[in-house]
Please model this.
Amino acid sequence: RHSDPTVTWIGHATVLVQMDHRTFLTDPIWSAKPFPLSFVGPMRFAPPALTLDALPPIDFVLISHNHYDHLDVPTLRWLAARGTRFFVPLGDAGWLRRAGIHPVDELDWWDRRVVDGLEIHCVPAQHWSGRRLTDDCASLWAGWVVTGATRRFYFAGDSGYFPGFADIGRLLGPFVL
Model:
């Protein structure tokens, strides 16, 4: 396992992070068109910076919300087949489980889990959720903080500015990555 911390932008909100001897991804999306209908929806502007096959083993994935350009089921299935663990905001585990993606931890704001010495915190964000016409804001959206022995990483997802940033920084910061 690596020892030097790295952050590699893959595209959109997908970031490959290596810190404290663990490797994780945020909102991984490798699909060319992250939308359920092939004849509508946005296309990628540029290919991912790495191919899926070029990724190192991924310990876990953080999902900020369930929009198609953040919760990409084909990519998540590929990662699940390789033993990756998934963390999602409250109300989104069902999407993954119905797609055969396991294991999934579903967290509410300010919940935390400990994985191999890293603390994973689900934190508030200013956004919204929805994958269908009838499920606006039916599930949570979130940011994530990962704290280890040597580094602290913050991923805000698609959050717009909101006063909660100060609380997150005060309670879990300062952030180095």
Observations:
- DSSP finds three helices and ten strands in the chain.
- The chain has a mean pLDDT of 85.
- The longest strand covers residues 6-11.
